[in-house]
């Protein structure tokens, strides 16, 4: 097991280039199995979740090769094989194999997904969508069995605008007979990215990025080449780290429009921000104002930046209230930050954060973004060494995190426990 060691107190300076988005990559890779020929993905991040997804496809007989940030997937010899255990248990997004296999083979057997379990994460809306398309879905001994004689387009109203359910239904509906309409669809940029790939493969999808998505099913999809959008959550994490260390960092290869909720909150706190075409410069200040943050679905403040933001708010003067309206109890980072001297109490779906100086401590990440929060907290500590365990969670979602922070002047390194 590895841990990160951090000697903080150094303002971050320089430029960091953001890789492709995890939450796009791990939907685009399964989407590729809907094609009959090779799909090439560019700007792929180097993450453990991506490596695990490549394994899943290889286990099914696809040919997958990777060179740097490019992955070539030839799904022509893929087979329908049950996947009750193994790699599918290692990540959350293995649920996309349900929609992709259903679209391609009209059947699938997949173990319930793993990944970050900061609270119960139901998949009832995914199942409701598959059933509406004509599939029979059963849950037996921890695996989901899906089968359809034929997939037929349907009108599906999502009770919650779920990212995963929206994408999963798009995957299955792309090769169903007739039209599908998803109402109350999620609007996250990664959904547009998946629709763009599917349309380049020959699918007919309109409205991705709005609450109504229309899909005209087609009988066959072909290979194509696609470049993945930048990771807005990694970008937001570096913006927060720059502000927290009172540094001056240019975050490059971002889509500033995707960062609006983050940028607005930093400006409200008193952080200096310059927005350029494909980059954002964050200049930290000595004093920050306490603010209230509400994590919501896109274009609201992202829940995935809620934990890193908690660490920054410990550096503000006064009391901030951070509420998560997507995941009501995503606060496993709070007791760990408390070990570092943070004054935070959780009430219902809110964390109430009082500004305070943090101290070095031995802490443990229990999920990906909790890990990012602890690294940021460690970077602000002026004396001593902070030890962050649970690095395997951080490696799920941060491409080259140690090298990137070192390049920005941080003293951070890996050690084996
Ligand atoms: C692989 C991936 O892209 N993960 C992201 C995706 O997760 P994921 O797709 O799992 O998250 P959802 O958008 O589905 O979840 C949003 C909310 O809907 C609820 N819900 C969801 C599905 C369902 O069938 N029933 C239900 O009740 C969830 O419990 C949660 O409260 O979006 C989340 C919210 O932006 C992010 O935190 C994750 O990083
Ligand atoms: C929760 C996250 O990811 P996943 O849904 O893949 O667990 C995340 O990226 O913060």
TrEMBL record:
Signal peptide (UniProt feature, chain positions): none
Coiled-coil ranges from the UniProt annotation: none
Catalytic site: 116 (proton donor)
BP-aspect Gene Ontology terms: cell division; cell wall organization; peptidoglycan biosynthetic process; regulation of cell shape; UDP-N-acetylgalactosamine biosynthetic process
Boundaries of every Enolpyruvate transferase domain copy: 7-404
Ligand binding (phosphoenolpyruvate): 22-23
EC number: 2.5.1.7
Main location as per UniProt: cytoplasm
Residues engaged in binding UDP-N-acetyl-alpha-D-glucosamine: 92, 121-125, 304, 326
Entry's family note: Belongs to the EPSP synthase family. MurA subfamily.
Free-text function comment from the UniProt entry: Cell wall formation. Adds enolpyruvyl to UDP-N-acetylglucosamine.
Record protein name field: UDP-N-acetylglucosamine 1-carboxyvinyltransferase
Organism: Paenibacillus glacialis
Source lineage: Bacteria, Bacillati, Bacillota, Bacilli, Bacillales
């Amino acid at each position: 097991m590895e841990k990160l060691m951090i000697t903080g107190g150094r303002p971050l300076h320089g430029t960091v280039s953001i890789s492709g988005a995890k939450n796009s990559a791990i939907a685009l890779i399964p989407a590729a199995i809907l094609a009959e020929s090779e799909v090439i993905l560019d700007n792929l991040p180097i993450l453990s979740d991506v490596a695990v997804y490549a394994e899943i496809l290889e286990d099914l007989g696809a040919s997958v090769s990777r060179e740097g940030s490019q992955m070539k997937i030839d799904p022509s010899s893929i087979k329908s094989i049950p996947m009750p255990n193994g790699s599918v248990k290692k990540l959350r997004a293995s649920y996309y194999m349900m929609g992709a296999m259903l679209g391609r083979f009209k059947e699938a057997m997949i173990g319930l997904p793993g990944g970050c379990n900061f609270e119960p994460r139901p998949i009832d809306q995914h199942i409701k969508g598959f059933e509406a398309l004509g599939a029979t879905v059963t849950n037996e001994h921890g695996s989901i069995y899906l089968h359809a004689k034929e997939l037929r387009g349907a009108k599906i109203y999502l009770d919650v605008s779920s990212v995963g359910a929206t994408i999963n239904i798009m995957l299955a509906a792309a090769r169903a007979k007739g039209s599908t309409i998803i109402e109350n669809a999620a609007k996250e940029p990664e959904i547009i990215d998946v629709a763009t790939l599917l349309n380049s493969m020959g699918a007919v999808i309109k409205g991705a990025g709005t609450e109504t998505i229309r899909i005209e099913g087609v009988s066959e999809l072909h290979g194509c080449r696609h470049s993945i959008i930048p990771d807005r959550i990694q970008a937001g994490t570096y913006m927060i780290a720059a502000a927290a260390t009172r540094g001056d960092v240019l975050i490059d290869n971002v889509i500033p429009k995707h960062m609006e909720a983050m940028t607005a909150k930093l400006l409200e706190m008193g952080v200096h921000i310059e927005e350029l075409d494909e980059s954002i410069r964050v200049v930290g200040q000595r004093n920050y104002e306490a603010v209230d943050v509400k994590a919501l679905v896109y274009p609201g403040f992202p829940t995935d930046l809620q934990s890193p933001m908690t660490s920054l708010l410990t550096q503000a003067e006064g009391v901030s209230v951070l509420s998560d309206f997507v995941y009501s109890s995503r606060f496993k980072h709070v007791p760990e930050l408390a070990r570092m001297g943070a004054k935070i109490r959780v009430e219902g779906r809110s964390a109430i954060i009082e500004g305070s100086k943090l101290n070095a401590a031995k802490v443990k990440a229990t999920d990906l973004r909790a890990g990012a929060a602890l690294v940021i907290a460690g970077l602000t500590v002026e004396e001593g060494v902070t030890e962050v365990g649970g690095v395997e969670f951080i490696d799920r979602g941060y491409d080259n995190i140690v090298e990137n922070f070192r390049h920005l002047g941080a003293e951070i390194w890996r050690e084996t426990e």
